[in-house]
Design goal:
78% helix, mainly alpha, Ferritin
């Protein structure tokens, strides 16, 4: 991969890794959850991440190997470097990291905090992704961002409810 700019396929592959790791984390966390409402939410989120995987897989088929930026954008180099640094973090590149956290974190509040952090990181990644995606694919990405925000809201709401 080019260290500064990415092909459309490379960006989609990073997004697929995020979603696959999220699905694995939520599946493992659902199996480890003690409370039914936590287990049910994690199962739902795992299913939604699976849906995101299908969406990105469809986009990947259409994108090919061309760069997704549309001409010069003053922030493309910075966005590309930021995407790379995020993609290189353990949560995104090591599927076992999320699985380990789902099982090793014993307190459900800790698992929820981990999931909240993962969703926030995904949202940040997708916002940067927006800068280098074709205009025709932006509505799909914006929809995914909204879904990730809904995941974040559900997790935060459940964490608050468990504190009460």
């Amino acid at each position: 991969m080019d260290p500064v700019n990415f092909t459309g396929r490379e960006i989609i592959e990073m997004a697929l890794e995020i979603e696959e790791n999220g699905m694995k984390f939520y599946s493992d966390a659902a199996r480890a959850a003690k409370k039914e409402e936590v287990r049910d939410l994690f199962k739902t989120l795992a299913e939604e991440e699976g849906h995101h995987i299908r969406i990105f897989s469809d986009i990947k088929k259409l994108v090919g190997d061309q760069f997704t930026g549309e001409g010069f954008h003053p922030y493309i180099a910075e966005a590309s470097e930021y995407l790379r640094s995020m993609a290189d973090t353990e949560v995104f590149t090591n599927p076992e990291e999320g699985a380990r956290a789902a099982v090793e974190l014993t307190d459900e509040a800790e698992v929820l905090d981990y999931a909240i952090g993962m969703e926030k990181d995904s949202i940040l990644f997708y916002y940067e992704f927006e800068k280098v995606i074709l205009a025709k694919d932006r509505p799909v990405l914006e929809g995914l961002i909204e879904q990730e925000k809904m995941h974040l809201g559900k997790l935060t709401e459940l964490k608050s409810a468990l504190k009460r």
